Model the fold of this input.
Amino acid sequence: MKLRLLISDRLERSENLYIELRHSDYAKKITMSIAKPLVDYAKSLKQQKGFTKSFSAFKRMVNYHRRYPWHVAAIVILAVIRSILFSLEPLYTTFIIINVLGPPTNTSLLPGYLLVIILAGIGWAISNFILTYVHGAMSQYIVRDIRTEYYRSLQGKSFSFYDSVGVGDLTSRATVDLQLVDMFLRTWLGTVLNAIFTTIIIIVIIYPISPIMTLISMATMPFIFYFTTRLWTDTMPLFRNMQLIMGRLSSYIQQNIIGMKTVRIFRREKDVVDGFKEVEDIYVNTAINAGKIQSIYLPLGPAILTLGAALVYVYAGYTLGARGSPLAVAQVGYLILFVRYMMRLTFPIRDVSQTLGTWIAAYAGIERVLEMTDAPRIVEDIPDAKDVKIEEGKLELKNVTFGYVKDRPVLSNVTFTVQPGEKTAILGATGSGKSSLIYLIPRFYDIQAGSIRIDGTDIREFKLASLRKQIGVVLQDVFLFSGTIRENIAFGKPDASMNEIVAAAKSARIHEFIESLPSGYYTPVGERGVTLSGGQKQRITIARALVGNPKMLIMDDSLSFVDAKTEQEIQSAIEEATKTRTTLIIAQRFSTIKTAEKILVLENGSVAEFGTHEELIARDGVYKKVYETQFVQKASPILEEAGDS
Amino acid sequence: MSGSYGTFSTKQEEKRKRTVPDRVLIRRVYEYAQANKRNLQVGVAATIIGAFTGLAAPYMHAIAIDQIITPKNLSGFIWWIPLFAAIILSNYVFQYIQTYQMRIVGEKVVAKMRDDMMEKLQVISLRYFSEGEAGRIISRPTNDANTVRIFLRLGLTSILVDISSILGAFAIMFYLNLRLSLLAITVLPVAIVLVWYLGKYSRAAYRRTLITTSGLTARMQEDLAGIKVTQAYVQEKETEKKFLRSQDENVKATIRAILIGSSYTPFVIALRLIGTMIILFYGVNAWLYGTITLGILVAFIEYQFSYFMPLVDLVTMYDQYQSAMSAIERMFDVIDTKVEVADAQPERSIIL
Done:
């Protein structure tokens, strides 16, 4: 049974390395209904009125403006100027009607009035241009600040955070969601100020002409205000839900595409699509409902205003001018002024409505971003952490208990010691806690009980940076950044000299290969670079771990199914790299296990066996069984040689 | 972004030229709308009629001024008020129908296309999902679908409303006064040329923004995919520096695009005001000679407002239209992918 586990373990690893690492949950979920969590989530979204919550998010958004007081001041001043200039044209048109058309007719005034209209227009255009620009630039700066804050917080998040959140989801929060925030920030202040100032200026101009007509025209404002608010409060929860569902739906699609192989293996295609359609339906219905509410309230504002204008006409018709006699041009001129101003108010009202719409989207966006920014870091420096130099490299684990979820330990009571310069190979089936164990050493996760000491100092007393810098790490996932090979090898020590880099590459047995490439160490890898095999990537990551010349090394050597030559090269690289360093290595190859001073067999998170090869063979336990059934039979001639010696 | 390199290949994506003509794409989208044919027909009709009823207000004002208020013929309000109220009400109703129906069409069409894509993705060859392709594929049912959704929801109705408003305003203006109309539209060709010309700069600047945005996305994606390595080697500060550089590039490009984009309005407004000035100048003279009434003169100024804004809107809509078309093309690209039978028993060998 053990053997079976080990074999399937290795097979799965090589084939589904990616899925296993980043979506370990996915394979588990797949045996249930895949889409169930998503469907449940979409259904669980309540239509609560998120008014107060939205207000606190709004306050937080406003706070980001504090760093740009000059931009805000410029926007306020320009908004005032813009509103004044916007209101001049109807006023001067009325002056033309009254003073030019007369009576008495006086065409000599016409050019002057026209000039004012043109100048006001040009002034409006220029102030509008500057305002749009300043507003847009400020918005970009604020979005940049929010994104930088987000990025910095992500840099500090622990492995367990990344185990539960997808990279695609995190990226789309910083791009798509922040774009929505940007849409709001680009115009909101200018729009709100414009609506306020324009209304005030218009009232100031028309009130002295006719207080009663002013009251009639303004009587519509409360209705418009009420309906605009209704539009907002009614649709906001719907739009928010839509956005949240869409966020989940996107990561669902992403998981599906990245894990397509797994989906096919387990034949869950239909489930994937059915679940998707179900959630998509919820989304579409929510969107249509929101559309219905919008279609009721959106056109209402302008309609009410227009009806208000009709009231002004009727009132004017009945009261202005002498009974029965034709109305004076002057009075008609004022009437036109009133009506045209009322029509002008439709623009700020429409703009405010639109801004509220962008706020709804921006609110969901900023919420998604801040949710991550505010998430705790988990693994942190303790208050009096120090820079500690590792002199010897003695590693002691005492009663270490650890679990990703509380009360469900993955490792329990693990105790063993690795002497300075010694190598300990770790064996165990999938889920036995091998990776978890080695990840505890550089504090990628914090233990729940027990202690881990290096040279007698508890690792929690190290500063995180100081601890990690002194431990070379080769992770299971052979990740290379896009850039040159040189940059990748020198990743942990960007100022490393060429000699150091070549030395590391030589130890990792990758130097000759690199030299054979057209641009040698300057060959780019990644999207537009050379394609490297898994074995080559792994040796580059080994070289990367060696550049800082660390005293200790932890390695997750999970690469299997490579040809004999590569196998030999990797083997030789590992042997060279671990010669003088305290090493913990998850081993796949017998040759690795054989060269280790100690072997640790993990079973269900506990130490089943620990000792030298000879000791464990003599013990006649799990290790001996695995050794005989797997390694001896399957070993290549070279390995057999090693095994026989 | 599968495997080891966490980068999107969106850069190439944007540079790619479109090959399928617009009308083919439009016809295929129209086929998707067949299931909601009724909604579409009602929606489009309501949109057009709604735009026309929206144009009636200035004309009604002119009538009130010229025929009722000025001659103090107040009994005219008996028919004017109900008529005006009816027009406003029908305008409201048509707008309501338009918004609602078009929303249904937009959401359902995109949902259907997305469902088809998802179904297709489950059956096409696994080779399709090879290294570096995942990011590209993911963006089709998500980003592309969203672009099309927004276009169908807002862009399409805007285009219909704009065209109807422009044509309607022209018709009314020419009907009211031919001479003044011809004078009023003299600024139009200048405006079109100017907006188009600025649009070219603006489009170039916008494309640059898109490229830096996908660069930023790629950077973020890669940094997060490699975060464990970064933390293991304590290189958070170094990667952050690179990220901030890429972000600054994006911020700069966007601000530039905003600068160019916001230069539209001053020119357009200036031109519109020149138009208003021409109307006022000749209008006042015409009034003195008794060939035009005060109501018509004011209506002209308002109508000039009603066709100028939609025109600018229409030109700026061009970008939205283009990006929606590219998104539609990419979505059909997935839907049309051929299924290879060889994949029927995928990866049996590795289960053992």
